[in-house]
Design brief:
6-stranded antiparallel sheet; two-stranded antiparallel ribbon
Amino acid sequence: MADRSWSRLALVVLAIVITVLPDGFMAQRRITSPDGHAATEIRGRYVGANPIYTDGKFIEISYGRPIRRGRDLFGSGGTYGQRLNAGAPVWRAGADVSTYLMSELPLVINGKTVPAGGHTLFVNLEEGKWTLIVSDWEPQARFNPADKTRLWGSYGYTPDKDVVRAPMTLTTLPYSVDQLTWLFLDMSDNGGTLALMWDRVMASVTFTVP
């Protein structure tokens, strides 16, 4: 009986709290661009009577996930990409923090080997021509304008730490993707495709695993 009484009391208190909260309080607590994560695992094997996947190697991308919110994201002509760059030299291909690739295997992109480990990802935006940039710039976990050795988003980016640049294949989608999404496509033990979707655009780059 005591447990039931406490449960009733907790519900009453919760109801009172919700009642007295100002309108919009819950919306204010939401994150504008939530953290995103894409992952794949390859080169493992299933073992045992109840098969368990073991010895696989992960390839992952972490990024901020902005929502379109009705915006003309890319623009056109001389202003193409400027809204997304927001004053930076290239696009962070996400929101807030730098987009970050983590791989337990080396990846071959556009004929060059990206060593296993962590690398930042950026996209150079030109109308009809996107270029993926894999870089050795380290990301900041929180914005610190005094730190010139690491980047917040793509502010302060310079190409001297580029590992590889690769042209991206642009595809017009038959639907609009409201929240920016990174994903892995057509994966096998030999490689696959990195893809970025937002609004009606999918931009992709193939890679192999040596």
